From TrEMBL, chain A:
<keyword id="KW-1133">Transmembrane helix</keyword>
<comment type="similarity">
    <text>Belongs to the complex I subunit 4L family.</text>
</comment>
<dbReference type="InterPro" id="IPR001133">
    <property type="entry name" value="NADH_UbQ_OxRdtase_chain4L/K"/>
</dbReference>
<protein>
    <recommendedName>
        <fullName>NADH-quinone oxidoreductase subunit K</fullName>
        <ecNumber>7.1.1.-</ecNumber>
    </recommendedName>
</protein>
<keyword id="KW-0472">Membrane</keyword>
<comment type="subunit">
    <text>NDH-1 is composed of 14 different subunits. Subunits NuoA, H, J, K, L, M, N constitute the membrane sector of the complex.</text>
</comment>
<keyword id="KW-0874">Quinone</keyword>
<dbReference type="InterPro" id="IPR039428">
    <property type="entry name" value="NUOK/Mnh_C1-like"/>
</dbReference>
<keyword id="KW-0520">NAD</keyword>
TrEMBL record, chain B:
<feature type="transmembrane region" description="Helical">
    <location>
        <begin position="398"/>
        <end position="429"/>
    </location>
</feature>
<dbReference type="Pfam" id="PF00361">
    <property type="entry name" value="Proton_antipo_M"/>
</dbReference>
<keyword id="KW-1003">Cell membrane</keyword>
<dbReference type="InterPro" id="IPR001750">
    <property type="entry name" value="ND/Mrp_TM"/>
</dbReference>
<dbReference type="InterPro" id="IPR010096">
    <property type="entry name" value="NADH-Q_OxRdtase_suN/2"/>
</dbReference>
<keyword id="KW-0520">NAD</keyword>
<feature type="transmembrane region" description="Helical">
    <location>
        <begin position="78"/>
        <end position="98"/>
    </location>
</feature>
<feature type="transmembrane region" description="Helical">
    <location>
        <begin position="107"/>
        <end position="124"/>
    </location>
</feature>
<protein>
    <recommendedName>
        <fullName>NADH-quinone oxidoreductase subunit N</fullName>
        <ecNumber>7.1.1.-</ecNumber>
    </recommendedName>
</protein>
Length: 102, 486
Protein backbone atom coordinates (compact mmCIF):
# COMPACT_ATOMS: atom_id res chain seq x y z
CA UNK A 1 0.00 0.00 0.00
CA UNK A 2 1.17 3.50 -0.79
CA UNK A 3 2.01 5.48 2.29
CA UNK A 4 -0.11 8.58 2.97
CA UNK A 5 2.94 10.84 2.91
CA UNK A 6 3.11 10.59 -0.88
CA UNK A 7 -0.44 11.89 -1.26
CA UNK A 8 0.20 14.71 1.19
CA UNK A 9 3.39 15.62 -0.67
CA UNK A 10 1.51 15.65 -3.99
CA UNK A 11 -1.15 17.92 -2.47
CA UNK A 12 1.49 20.23 -1.00
CA UNK A 13 3.27 20.49 -4.36
CA UNK A 14 0.00 21.22 -6.18
CA UNK A 15 -0.92 23.85 -3.57
CA UNK A 16 2.44 25.57 -4.00
CA UNK A 17 2.20 25.49 -7.80
CA UNK A 18 -1.26 27.02 -7.53
CA UNK A 19 -0.12 29.74 -5.15
CA UNK A 20 2.92 30.50 -7.30
CA UNK A 21 0.67 30.79 -10.35
CA UNK A 22 -1.78 33.13 -8.60
CA UNK A 23 1.08 35.38 -7.56
CA UNK A 24 3.06 35.45 -10.83
CA UNK A 25 0.88 34.74 -13.89
CA UNK A 26 -0.44 37.70 -15.88
CA UNK A 27 -3.27 35.99 -17.73
CA UNK A 28 -6.43 36.14 -15.59
CA UNK A 29 -7.85 32.84 -16.83
CA UNK A 30 -4.65 31.08 -15.77
CA UNK A 31 -4.89 32.82 -12.41
CA UNK A 32 -8.39 31.40 -11.92
CA UNK A 33 -7.14 27.97 -12.97
CA UNK A 34 -4.41 28.26 -10.34
CA UNK A 35 -7.00 29.06 -7.66
CA UNK A 36 -8.78 25.85 -8.71
CA UNK A 37 -5.50 23.99 -8.46
CA UNK A 38 -5.15 25.08 -4.84
CA UNK A 39 -8.67 23.89 -4.05
CA UNK A 40 -8.03 20.54 -5.73
CA UNK A 41 -4.87 20.14 -3.67
CA UNK A 42 -7.09 20.41 -0.61
CA UNK A 43 -9.42 17.78 -2.06
CA UNK A 44 -6.54 15.34 -2.56
CA UNK A 45 -5.53 15.94 1.04
CA UNK A 46 -9.02 15.24 2.32
CA UNK A 47 -9.54 12.13 0.22
CA UNK A 48 -6.16 10.71 1.22
CA UNK A 49 -6.94 11.30 4.89
CA UNK A 50 -10.41 9.85 4.51
CA UNK A 51 -9.14 6.67 2.80
CA UNK A 52 -5.85 5.82 4.51
CA UNK A 53 -5.45 8.49 7.19
CA UNK A 54 -4.74 7.80 10.87
CA UNK A 55 -8.47 7.99 11.62
CA UNK A 56 -10.16 7.33 8.30
CA UNK A 57 -13.84 8.06 7.78
CA UNK A 58 -16.45 9.20 5.29
CA UNK A 59 -16.50 12.91 6.25
CA UNK A 60 -13.51 13.79 4.10
CA UNK A 61 -15.23 12.58 0.96
CA UNK A 62 -18.38 14.52 1.82
CA UNK A 63 -16.26 17.60 2.42
CA UNK A 64 -14.63 17.10 -0.99
CA UNK A 65 -18.00 16.98 -2.74
CA UNK A 66 -18.89 20.30 -1.12
CA UNK A 67 -15.56 21.79 -2.16
CA UNK A 68 -16.01 20.69 -5.79
CA UNK A 69 -19.48 22.21 -6.07
CA UNK A 70 -18.57 25.43 -4.30
CA UNK A 71 -15.42 25.78 -6.40
CA UNK A 72 -17.54 25.45 -9.54
CA UNK A 73 -19.83 28.23 -8.35
CA UNK A 74 -16.87 30.40 -7.49
CA UNK A 75 -15.25 29.96 -10.89
CA UNK A 76 -18.57 30.62 -12.65
CA UNK A 77 -18.81 33.97 -10.87
CA UNK A 78 -15.11 34.63 -11.51
CA UNK A 79 -15.44 34.02 -15.26
CA UNK A 80 -18.58 36.17 -15.44
CA UNK A 81 -16.77 39.07 -13.82
CA UNK A 82 -13.80 38.41 -16.11
CA UNK A 83 -16.02 38.80 -19.20
CA UNK A 84 -17.46 42.04 -17.82
CA UNK A 85 -13.90 43.23 -17.20
CA UNK A 86 -12.83 42.29 -20.73
CA UNK A 87 -15.75 44.22 -22.24
CA UNK A 88 -14.80 47.31 -20.26
CA UNK A 89 -11.08 47.18 -20.80
CA UNK A 90 -10.33 45.00 -23.86
CA UNK A 91 -7.69 43.12 -21.90
CA UNK A 92 -7.37 40.42 -19.27
CA UNK A 93 -3.72 41.05 -18.54
CA UNK A 94 -3.28 41.47 -14.79
CA UNK A 95 -0.62 44.17 -15.18
CA UNK A 96 -2.95 46.48 -17.09
CA UNK A 97 -5.63 46.59 -14.40
CA UNK A 98 -4.13 49.19 -12.15
CA UNK A 99 -6.86 51.80 -11.67
CA UNK A 100 -7.06 50.97 -7.99
CA UNK A 101 -3.90 51.27 -5.99
CA UNK A 102 -2.28 52.60 -2.79
CA UNK B 1 -26.32 8.58 14.36
CA UNK B 2 -28.56 11.51 13.61
CA UNK B 3 -31.64 10.97 11.49
CA UNK B 4 -33.26 13.85 9.65
CA UNK B 5 -36.58 13.12 11.35
CA UNK B 6 -35.14 13.40 14.84
CA UNK B 7 -33.38 16.71 14.29
CA UNK B 8 -34.93 19.78 15.83
CA UNK B 9 -35.27 21.76 12.62
CA UNK B 10 -37.26 24.52 14.34
CA UNK B 11 -33.93 25.90 15.57
CA UNK B 12 -33.21 26.87 11.97
CA UNK B 13 -36.45 28.84 11.60
CA UNK B 14 -34.85 32.27 11.03
CA UNK B 15 -32.51 30.93 8.33
CA UNK B 16 -35.27 29.03 6.54
CA UNK B 17 -37.60 32.03 6.65
CA UNK B 18 -34.90 34.36 5.35
CA UNK B 19 -34.03 31.94 2.53
CA UNK B 20 -37.69 31.68 1.54
CA UNK B 21 -38.19 35.44 1.60
CA UNK B 22 -34.99 36.00 -0.40
CA UNK B 23 -36.22 33.52 -3.03
CA UNK B 24 -39.62 35.26 -3.12
CA UNK B 25 -37.90 38.61 -3.71
CA UNK B 26 -35.78 36.95 -6.41
CA UNK B 27 -38.95 35.60 -8.06
CA UNK B 28 -40.81 38.91 -7.90
CA UNK B 29 -37.78 40.48 -9.55
CA UNK B 30 -37.96 38.39 -12.70
CA UNK B 31 -41.74 38.59 -12.84
CA UNK B 32 -41.48 42.37 -13.18
CA UNK B 33 -39.56 44.29 -15.86
CA UNK B 34 -35.87 43.59 -16.33
CA UNK B 35 -34.90 47.22 -16.05
CA UNK B 36 -36.38 50.05 -14.08
CA UNK B 37 -36.49 51.05 -10.48
CA UNK B 38 -37.90 48.65 -7.94
CA UNK B 39 -38.09 50.45 -4.60
CA UNK B 40 -40.79 48.05 -3.38
CA UNK B 41 -38.23 45.22 -3.43
CA UNK B 42 -36.00 47.27 -1.16
CA UNK B 43 -38.83 47.82 1.30
CA UNK B 44 -39.68 44.12 1.15
CA UNK B 45 -36.04 43.23 1.88
CA UNK B 46 -35.97 45.49 4.93
CA UNK B 47 -39.20 43.91 6.20
CA UNK B 48 -37.79 40.39 5.62
CA UNK B 49 -34.67 41.24 7.59
CA UNK B 50 -36.67 42.67 10.47
CA UNK B 51 -38.95 39.59 10.53
CA UNK B 52 -35.86 37.39 10.65
CA UNK B 53 -34.37 39.52 13.43
CA UNK B 54 -37.51 39.08 15.53
CA UNK B 55 -37.45 35.32 14.89
CA UNK B 56 -33.79 35.19 15.93
CA UNK B 57 -34.67 37.02 19.13
CA UNK B 58 -37.36 34.48 19.96
CA UNK B 59 -35.87 31.18 18.79
CA UNK B 60 -32.17 31.61 19.53
CA UNK B 61 -32.61 32.50 23.16
CA UNK B 62 -32.73 29.05 24.72
CA UNK B 63 -29.92 27.37 22.87
CA UNK B 64 -29.89 24.05 21.13
CA UNK B 65 -28.15 22.12 18.42
CA UNK B 66 -28.93 20.12 15.32
CA UNK B 67 -26.60 17.14 15.57
CA UNK B 68 -23.63 19.26 16.73
CA UNK B 69 -23.51 20.72 13.24
CA UNK B 70 -25.67 23.78 13.62
CA UNK B 71 -25.62 25.47 17.01
CA UNK B 72 -27.90 28.10 18.41
CA UNK B 73 -26.83 30.00 21.54
CA UNK B 74 -26.53 33.51 22.95
CA UNK B 75 -23.37 34.08 20.94
CA UNK B 76 -25.08 33.32 17.65
CA UNK B 77 -28.12 35.37 18.67
CA UNK B 78 -26.14 38.52 19.41
CA UNK B 79 -24.07 38.37 16.23
CA UNK B 80 -27.06 37.49 14.05
CA UNK B 81 -28.98 40.46 15.44
CA UNK B 82 -26.09 42.84 14.78
CA UNK B 83 -25.68 41.47 11.24
CA UNK B 84 -29.40 41.60 10.41
CA UNK B 85 -29.86 45.16 11.68
CA UNK B 86 -26.66 46.15 9.85
CA UNK B 87 -27.91 44.72 6.55
CA UNK B 88 -31.30 46.41 7.01
CA UNK B 89 -29.51 49.76 7.41
CA UNK B 90 -27.30 49.00 4.37
CA UNK B 91 -30.40 48.32 2.27
CA UNK B 92 -31.87 51.60 3.49
CA UNK B 93 -28.76 53.33 2.13
CA UNK B 94 -28.80 51.26 -1.06
CA UNK B 95 -32.31 52.37 -1.96
CA UNK B 96 -31.11 55.93 -2.44
CA UNK B 97 -28.05 54.78 -4.40
CA UNK B 98 -30.03 52.48 -6.70
CA UNK B 99 -32.52 55.27 -7.27
CA UNK B 100 -29.66 57.31 -8.72
CA UNK B 101 -28.11 54.51 -10.78
CA UNK B 102 -30.38 53.12 -13.45
CA UNK B 103 -27.68 50.81 -14.84
CA UNK B 104 -27.85 48.50 -11.80
CA UNK B 105 -30.21 45.53 -12.03
CA UNK B 106 -32.16 46.30 -8.93
CA UNK B 107 -33.96 43.13 -7.93
CA UNK B 108 -30.86 40.95 -8.13
CA UNK B 109 -29.05 43.42 -5.93
CA UNK B 110 -31.47 42.99 -3.05
CA UNK B 111 -31.74 39.21 -3.30
CA UNK B 112 -27.94 38.83 -3.48
CA UNK B 113 -27.64 40.92 -0.36
CA UNK B 114 -30.16 38.73 1.44
CA UNK B 115 -28.33 35.56 0.33
CA UNK B 116 -25.08 37.03 1.64
CA UNK B 117 -26.82 37.67 4.96
CA UNK B 118 -28.03 34.08 5.01
CA UNK B 119 -24.46 32.88 4.52
CA UNK B 120 -23.29 35.09 7.38
CA UNK B 121 -26.02 33.68 9.65
CA UNK B 122 -25.03 30.09 8.79
CA UNK B 123 -21.39 30.91 9.54
CA UNK B 124 -22.21 32.39 12.92
CA UNK B 125 -24.20 29.30 13.91
CA UNK B 126 -21.90 26.63 12.52
CA UNK B 127 -20.22 24.07 14.77
CA UNK B 128 -18.84 21.97 11.94
CA UNK B 129 -16.11 22.71 9.42
CA UNK B 130 -18.32 21.82 6.43
CA UNK B 131 -21.20 24.07 7.48
CA UNK B 132 -18.74 26.82 8.26
CA UNK B 133 -17.18 26.52 4.81
CA UNK B 134 -20.54 26.50 3.00
CA UNK B 135 -21.78 29.54 4.95
CA UNK B 136 -18.52 31.35 4.28
CA UNK B 137 -18.75 30.69 0.55
CA UNK B 138 -22.41 31.75 0.32
CA UNK B 139 -21.35 35.05 1.88
CA UNK B 140 -18.19 35.37 -0.24
CA UNK B 141 -19.67 34.48 -3.63
CA UNK B 142 -22.59 36.87 -3.12
CA UNK B 143 -20.08 39.55 -2.11
CA UNK B 144 -18.02 38.97 -5.29
CA UNK B 145 -21.14 39.58 -7.39
CA UNK B 146 -22.06 42.66 -5.37
CA UNK B 147 -18.55 44.15 -5.64
CA UNK B 148 -18.69 43.93 -9.45
CA UNK B 149 -22.29 45.04 -9.63
CA UNK B 150 -21.77 48.14 -11.80
CA UNK B 151 -20.72 46.00 -14.70
CA UNK B 152 -20.17 48.89 -17.12
CA UNK B 153 -17.89 50.62 -14.65
CA UNK B 154 -14.18 49.91 -15.03
CA UNK B 155 -13.32 50.34 -11.37
CA UNK B 156 -16.16 48.14 -10.17
CA UNK B 157 -15.27 45.17 -12.39
CA UNK B 158 -11.60 45.52 -11.49
CA UNK B 159 -12.55 45.44 -7.79
CA UNK B 160 -14.70 42.38 -8.48
CA UNK B 161 -11.97 40.36 -10.18
CA UNK B 162 -9.44 41.25 -7.49
CA UNK B 163 -11.89 40.15 -4.85
CA UNK B 164 -12.66 36.84 -6.60
CA UNK B 165 -9.01 35.87 -7.11
CA UNK B 166 -7.83 36.86 -3.64
CA UNK B 167 -10.98 35.61 -1.91
CA UNK B 168 -10.65 32.24 -3.63
CA UNK B 169 -7.02 32.03 -2.54
CA UNK B 170 -8.02 32.84 1.04
CA UNK B 171 -10.67 30.11 0.95
CA UNK B 172 -8.05 27.64 -0.30
CA UNK B 173 -5.81 28.58 2.64
CA UNK B 174 -8.64 28.05 5.13
CA UNK B 175 -9.48 24.68 3.58
CA UNK B 176 -5.88 23.54 3.48
CA UNK B 177 -5.61 24.27 7.20
CA UNK B 178 -8.89 22.48 7.89
CA UNK B 179 -7.84 19.42 5.90
CA UNK B 180 -5.02 18.72 8.37
CA UNK B 181 -7.32 19.14 11.36
CA UNK B 182 -9.68 16.64 9.77
CA UNK B 183 -6.86 14.29 8.84
CA UNK B 184 -5.50 14.05 12.37
CA UNK B 185 -8.85 13.79 14.16
CA UNK B 186 -11.05 12.05 11.60
CA UNK B 187 -13.96 14.38 12.33
CA UNK B 188 -15.20 17.74 11.11
CA UNK B 189 -17.08 18.66 14.28
CA UNK B 190 -15.27 21.48 16.05
CA UNK B 191 -16.37 20.15 19.45
CA UNK B 192 -14.77 16.77 18.82
CA UNK B 193 -11.66 18.37 17.35
CA UNK B 194 -11.38 20.44 20.53
CA UNK B 195 -11.30 17.29 22.65
CA UNK B 196 -8.49 15.85 20.56
CA UNK B 197 -6.32 18.97 20.34
CA UNK B 198 -4.30 18.75 23.62
CA UNK B 199 -2.85 15.30 22.85
CA UNK B 200 -2.39 16.13 19.15
CA UNK B 201 -0.51 19.28 20.10
CA UNK B 202 2.02 17.12 21.96
CA UNK B 203 2.33 14.50 19.21
CA UNK B 204 2.03 16.62 16.06
CA UNK B 205 3.03 20.13 17.16
CA UNK B 206 4.14 21.29 13.71
CA UNK B 207 1.13 19.99 11.82
CA UNK B 208 -1.30 21.67 14.23
CA UNK B 209 0.72 24.90 14.18
CA UNK B 210 0.76 24.89 10.37
CA UNK B 211 -2.95 24.18 10.19
CA UNK B 212 -3.58 27.04 12.64
CA UNK B 213 -1.44 29.47 10.64
CA UNK B 214 -3.12 28.56 7.34
CA UNK B 215 -6.55 29.17 8.84
CA UNK B 216 -5.32 32.37 10.46
CA UNK B 217 -4.13 33.68 7.09
CA UNK B 218 -7.47 32.83 5.45
CA UNK B 219 -9.65 34.34 8.17
CA UNK B 220 -7.26 37.26 8.54
CA UNK B 221 -8.07 38.01 4.92
CA UNK B 222 -11.80 37.92 5.60
CA UNK B 223 -11.54 40.35 8.53
CA UNK B 224 -8.88 42.40 6.66
CA UNK B 225 -6.20 42.16 9.34
CA UNK B 226 -2.66 43.25 8.47
CA UNK B 227 -0.69 41.65 6.72
CA UNK B 228 -3.63 40.13 4.81
CA UNK B 229 -5.37 43.47 4.21
CA UNK B 230 -4.07 44.52 0.79
CA UNK B 231 -7.29 43.67 -1.03
CA UNK B 232 -9.52 45.80 1.21
CA UNK B 233 -8.74 49.34 0.03
CA UNK B 234 -8.88 48.35 -3.65
CA UNK B 235 -12.15 46.46 -3.38
CA UNK B 236 -13.71 49.10 -1.14
CA UNK B 237 -12.79 51.89 -3.53
CA UNK B 238 -14.03 50.14 -6.66
CA UNK B 239 -17.28 48.68 -5.35
CA UNK B 240 -20.56 50.59 -5.41
CA UNK B 241 -20.61 52.60 -2.16
CA UNK B 242 -23.45 50.72 -0.38
CA UNK B 243 -21.59 47.48 -1.12
CA UNK B 244 -18.50 49.02 0.46
CA UNK B 245 -20.60 49.70 3.56
CA UNK B 246 -21.83 46.10 3.47
CA UNK B 247 -18.33 44.66 3.16
CA UNK B 248 -16.82 46.85 5.83
CA UNK B 249 -19.54 46.06 8.33
CA UNK B 250 -21.32 42.77 7.72
CA UNK B 251 -18.55 40.69 6.13
CA UNK B 252 -16.09 41.83 8.73
CA UNK B 253 -18.30 41.10 11.74
CA UNK B 254 -19.28 37.69 10.37
CA UNK B 255 -15.56 37.01 9.99
CA UNK B 256 -14.95 38.02 13.60
CA UNK B 257 -17.79 35.83 14.81
CA UNK B 258 -16.32 32.81 13.08
CA UNK B 259 -12.80 33.57 14.30
CA UNK B 260 -14.17 33.63 17.84
CA UNK B 261 -16.19 30.47 17.36
CA UNK B 262 -13.46 28.49 15.63
CA UNK B 263 -10.41 29.54 17.57
CA UNK B 264 -12.03 29.81 21.00
CA UNK B 265 -13.70 26.43 20.73
CA UNK B 266 -11.26 24.38 18.70
CA UNK B 267 -7.97 25.74 19.98
CA UNK B 268 -9.08 26.82 23.45
CA UNK B 269 -6.99 24.20 25.23
CA UNK B 270 -3.78 25.50 23.72
CA UNK B 271 -4.70 29.20 24.05
CA UNK B 272 -1.35 30.19 25.61
CA UNK B 273 0.45 28.90 22.52
CA UNK B 274 -1.34 31.12 20.01
CA UNK B 275 -2.43 34.22 21.93
CA UNK B 276 0.75 36.06 21.08
CA UNK B 277 0.25 35.59 17.33
CA UNK B 278 -3.02 37.48 17.64
CA UNK B 279 -1.37 40.19 19.74
CA UNK B 280 1.22 40.79 17.00
CA UNK B 281 -1.44 40.86 14.29
CA UNK B 282 -3.62 43.23 16.33
CA UNK B 283 -0.72 45.63 16.90
CA UNK B 284 0.32 45.55 13.22
CA UNK B 285 -3.28 46.08 12.11
CA UNK B 286 -3.78 49.10 14.35
CA UNK B 287 -0.46 50.72 13.43
CA UNK B 288 -0.52 50.14 9.67
CA UNK B 289 -4.25 50.82 9.27
CA UNK B 290 -4.10 54.14 11.09
CA UNK B 291 -0.83 55.40 9.60
CA UNK B 292 -1.70 54.62 5.97
CA UNK B 293 -5.11 56.22 6.48
CA UNK B 294 -3.29 59.50 7.14
CA UNK B 295 -2.09 59.64 3.53
CA UNK B 296 -5.46 58.93 1.86
CA UNK B 297 -7.40 61.49 -0.13
CA UNK B 298 -10.24 59.29 -1.40
CA UNK B 299 -13.01 59.02 1.20
CA UNK B 300 -13.87 55.37 0.48
CA UNK B 301 -10.22 54.39 0.68
CA UNK B 302 -9.92 56.34 3.91
CA UNK B 303 -12.87 54.42 5.31
CA UNK B 304 -11.24 51.17 4.18
CA UNK B 305 -8.09 51.91 6.16
CA UNK B 306 -10.21 53.16 9.05
CA UNK B 307 -12.05 49.82 8.92
CA UNK B 308 -8.72 47.96 9.00
CA UNK B 309 -7.69 49.97 12.06
CA UNK B 310 -11.03 49.22 13.76
CA UNK B 311 -10.49 45.51 13.06
CA UNK B 312 -7.23 45.90 14.95
CA UNK B 313 -9.04 47.23 18.02
CA UNK B 314 -11.48 44.32 17.78
CA UNK B 315 -8.56 41.86 17.71
CA UNK B 316 -7.16 43.12 21.02
CA UNK B 317 -9.68 41.27 23.25
CA UNK B 318 -8.88 38.02 21.40
CA UNK B 319 -5.18 38.40 22.20
CA UNK B 320 -5.77 39.52 25.80
CA UNK B 321 -8.39 37.36 27.42
CA UNK B 322 -9.47 37.90 31.02
CA UNK B 323 -12.44 35.56 30.81
CA UNK B 324 -14.01 34.33 27.59
CA UNK B 325 -17.34 35.96 28.42
CA UNK B 326 -15.56 39.32 28.77
CA UNK B 327 -13.93 38.91 25.36
CA UNK B 328 -17.26 38.13 23.70
CA UNK B 329 -18.91 41.05 25.49
CA UNK B 330 -16.23 43.51 24.40
CA UNK B 331 -16.27 42.38 20.78
CA UNK B 332 -20.07 42.33 20.59
CA UNK B 333 -20.31 45.79 22.18
CA UNK B 334 -17.63 47.39 20.03
CA UNK B 335 -18.94 45.55 16.97
CA UNK B 336 -22.38 46.99 17.53
CA UNK B 337 -20.94 50.48 18.03
CA UNK B 338 -18.82 50.00 14.87
CA UNK B 339 -21.87 49.02 12.80
CA UNK B 340 -23.83 52.10 13.89
CA UNK B 341 -20.98 54.59 13.48
CA UNK B 342 -19.73 53.23 10.16
CA UNK B 343 -23.13 52.87 8.52
CA UNK B 344 -24.14 56.37 9.63
CA UNK B 345 -20.91 57.74 8.19
CA UNK B 346 -21.36 55.77 4.93
CA UNK B 347 -24.92 57.11 4.52
CA UNK B 348 -23.55 60.65 4.55
CA UNK B 349 -20.58 59.71 2.36
CA UNK B 350 -23.00 58.37 -0.27
CA UNK B 351 -25.07 61.55 -0.06
CA UNK B 352 -22.04 63.78 -0.54
CA UNK B 353 -20.16 61.78 -3.16
CA UNK B 354 -23.27 61.24 -5.28
CA UNK B 355 -23.98 64.96 -5.11
CA UNK B 356 -20.51 66.05 -6.18
CA UNK B 357 -19.79 63.11 -8.49
CA UNK B 358 -16.30 62.54 -7.08
CA UNK B 359 -14.99 60.65 -4.08
CA UNK B 360 -12.35 63.11 -3.00
CA UNK B 361 -12.18 64.45 0.56
CA UNK B 362 -12.80 67.93 -0.82
CA UNK B 363 -16.38 67.01 -1.74
CA UNK B 364 -17.14 67.52 1.96
CA UNK B 365 -16.20 71.20 1.65
CA UNK B 366 -18.65 73.47 3.44
CA UNK B 367 -21.18 70.74 4.21
CA UNK B 368 -22.12 72.73 7.32
CA UNK B 369 -23.61 75.47 5.15
CA UNK B 370 -25.22 73.09 2.69
CA UNK B 371 -26.87 70.71 5.16
CA UNK B 372 -26.24 71.48 8.85
CA UNK B 373 -27.96 68.35 10.18
CA UNK B 374 -25.83 66.03 8.04
CA UNK B 375 -22.65 67.89 8.99
CA UNK B 376 -23.40 67.56 12.69
CA UNK B 377 -24.38 63.89 12.34
CA UNK B 378 -21.20 63.12 10.39
CA UNK B 379 -19.12 64.83 13.08
CA UNK B 380 -20.74 62.71 15.77
CA UNK B 381 -20.01 59.50 13.83
CA UNK B 382 -16.40 60.47 13.10
CA UNK B 383 -15.69 61.64 16.66
CA UNK B 384 -17.18 58.40 17.88
CA UNK B 385 -15.05 56.34 15.47
CA UNK B 386 -12.00 58.24 16.67
CA UNK B 387 -13.00 57.42 20.24
CA UNK B 388 -13.05 60.85 21.84
CA UNK B 389 -14.26 60.70 25.48
CA UNK B 390 -17.98 60.42 26.19
CA UNK B 391 -18.87 58.92 22.83
CA UNK B 392 -20.06 55.39 22.09
CA UNK B 393 -16.76 54.51 20.44
CA UNK B 394 -14.94 55.70 23.54
CA UNK B 395 -16.84 53.34 25.84
CA UNK B 396 -16.17 50.42 23.52
CA UNK B 397 -12.46 51.24 23.39
CA UNK B 398 -12.30 51.89 27.14
CA UNK B 399 -13.69 48.41 27.91
CA UNK B 400 -11.19 46.84 25.52
CA UNK B 401 -8.35 48.94 26.96
CA UNK B 402 -9.03 48.02 30.59
CA UNK B 403 -9.52 44.40 29.57
CA UNK B 404 -6.11 44.36 27.90
CA UNK B 405 -4.48 45.93 30.97
CA UNK B 406 -6.20 43.45 33.25
CA UNK B 407 -4.94 40.58 31.10
CA UNK B 408 -1.37 41.86 31.46
CA UNK B 409 -1.03 43.04 27.85
CA UNK B 410 -0.14 46.62 28.74
CA UNK B 411 2.00 47.15 25.63
CA UNK B 412 -0.93 46.27 23.41
CA UNK B 413 -3.17 48.70 25.32
CA UNK B 414 -0.54 51.42 24.84
CA UNK B 415 -0.36 50.73 21.09
CA UNK B 416 -4.13 51.06 21.02
CA UNK B 417 -4.11 54.47 22.72
CA UNK B 418 -1.29 55.84 20.56
CA UNK B 419 -2.85 54.71 17.29
CA UNK B 420 -6.22 56.11 18.40
CA UNK B 421 -4.57 59.48 18.84
CA UNK B 422 -3.10 59.16 15.33
CA UNK B 423 -6.58 58.42 13.99
CA UNK B 424 -7.81 61.82 15.25
CA UNK B 425 -5.86 63.49 12.44
CA UNK B 426 -7.64 61.86 9.53
CA UNK B 427 -11.09 61.86 11.10
CA UNK B 428 -10.71 65.53 11.94
CA UNK B 429 -9.51 66.16 8.39
CA UNK B 430 -13.05 65.46 7.19
CA UNK B 431 -14.59 67.52 10.01
CA UNK B 432 -12.32 70.44 9.07
CA UNK B 433 -13.49 70.22 5.46
CA UNK B 434 -17.12 70.33 6.58
CA UNK B 435 -16.93 73.24 9.00
CA UNK B 436 -13.92 75.37 8.09
CA UNK B 437 -13.95 75.41 4.30
CA UNK B 438 -16.29 77.51 2.19
CA UNK B 439 -18.48 75.57 -0.24
CA UNK B 440 -17.90 76.06 -3.98
CA UNK B 441 -19.98 78.96 -5.33
CA UNK B 442 -21.92 76.53 -7.55
CA UNK B 443 -22.87 74.20 -4.66
CA UNK B 444 -26.49 74.30 -3.63
CA UNK B 445 -28.17 73.19 -0.46
CA UNK B 446 -28.29 69.37 -0.43
CA UNK B 447 -31.73 67.80 -0.47
CA UNK B 448 -31.66 64.76 1.82
CA UNK B 449 -33.78 61.85 0.56
CA UNK B 450 -36.06 60.29 3.11
CA UNK B 451 -34.41 56.82 3.35
CA UNK B 452 -31.00 58.29 3.98
CA UNK B 453 -32.24 60.66 6.64
CA UNK B 454 -34.05 57.78 8.36
CA UNK B 455 -30.85 55.68 8.41
CA UNK B 456 -28.77 58.61 9.63
CA UNK B 457 -31.32 59.49 12.31
CA UNK B 458 -31.52 55.92 13.61
CA UNK B 459 -27.73 55.59 13.76
CA UNK B 460 -27.37 59.03 15.34
CA UNK B 461 -30.08 58.47 17.94
CA UNK B 462 -28.66 55.12 19.07
CA UNK B 463 -25.06 56.35 19.01
CA UNK B 464 -25.89 59.37 21.17
CA UNK B 465 -28.29 57.53 23.50
CA UNK B 466 -25.84 54.69 24.17
CA UNK B 467 -23.02 57.16 24.70
CA UNK B 468 -24.86 58.33 27.82
CA UNK B 469 -26.15 54.97 29.02
CA UNK B 470 -23.79 52.27 27.68
CA UNK B 471 -24.49 50.20 30.79
CA UNK B 472 -27.88 49.06 29.45
CA UNK B 473 -26.33 47.09 26.60
CA UNK B 474 -23.26 46.13 28.62
CA UNK B 475 -25.34 44.64 31.43
CA UNK B 476 -27.45 42.70 28.95
CA UNK B 477 -24.36 41.34 27.18
CA UNK B 478 -22.61 40.45 30.42
CA UNK B 479 -25.65 38.50 31.61
CA UNK B 480 -25.58 36.18 28.57
CA UNK B 481 -24.26 32.63 28.71
CA UNK B 482 -22.55 32.97 25.28
CA UNK B 483 -21.38 29.54 24.16
CA UNK B 484 -23.09 27.63 26.93
CA UNK B 485 -23.00 24.39 24.97
CA UNK B 486 -19.28 23.94 24.81
Amino acid sequence: MVHITFFLALAAILFCIGLYGVLTRRHLVIVLVCVELMLMAVSINLIAFSAIGPSAGIEGQVFTLFIISVAAAEVAVGLAILIALYRNRESIDVIKHDLLRW
Amino acid sequence: MLLANDANWSLMTPEIVLAALALIIFTIDFMTDIKGKKPFLGRLSIISLLITAVLVLFTNNDGGTIGHVFVVDSFSMVFKLIILVGVALVIGISMYYLDKHEDIYQGEYYSLMLFATLGAMLMVSSADLIVLFVGLEILSISSYCLAAFKKYNRKSTEAGIKYVVLGGTASAFILYGMSFLYGLTGTTSIVEIREAIPTLWVDYTWVIAMSFLFMLAGFGFKISAVPFHMWAPDVYEGSPTPVTAFLSVVSKLAGFAIVLRLFFVTFENIYVEWAFTFAVIAALTMVIGNFIALTQKNVKRLMAYSGIAQAGYLLVPIAAVVTEADTFTMIAFYGMAYVLMTLGAFAIIILVTEDSGKEDMSSFKGLWERSPYMAVAMSVFLISLAGLPLTLGFWGKAYIFFGAVAAGMTWLAVVMIVTSVVSFFYYFGIIRQMFMREPEPTDQEIKVPVYLSVVVTICLAVTVALAFIPSIVMDWLQGLTWMGMF
